[in-house]
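Action item from last week, closing it out:
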Amino acid sequence: MNEPKCPVPREQQPTNEFIELSKSVIFSWPKTKKSLILVLIKFWVGAFILFIVISSGSIYFKTSILKYILLSLFCSLSIPILISIRLYLGWNHVFKRLTSERVEYEESGWYDGQVWIKPLILKEKESLIASIEVKPILKNLIQITSIISVFALSGVLLFQNINF
């Protein structure tokens, strides 16, 4: 897309969007599964501490400490789920732009949307980037979000079926 005949502004070109997203501090977390898991665990622990502090203000906390610790543990999973969903949405947007045959763009504002059809060479190049770079990231995000969701749902089922 760096060809002079490309009418799409530089910052709206899918390849450049991919590069910018890759350089981003937050969106670079899922590039390796291990780094993403470590970051999400840190957020989970931080949210757990915050939820414990909030639930400790409850009058019932003194009578059923185990219940509130488990409740805080499972509720704090909502923060990693939200983070992983946000990461997925960002990377999925770039994936769709890279694999699309058309590039929608605006020259000066939201009201003048244009569509440019990619040439075959560019389409192949961006499809390769999407399949080699972005698809594994999306796969990791789906797996991790699914695992976190299973833990959160098992916690909900635990509290629905067991009386403390």
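Closing note: The radius of gyration is 22 Å.
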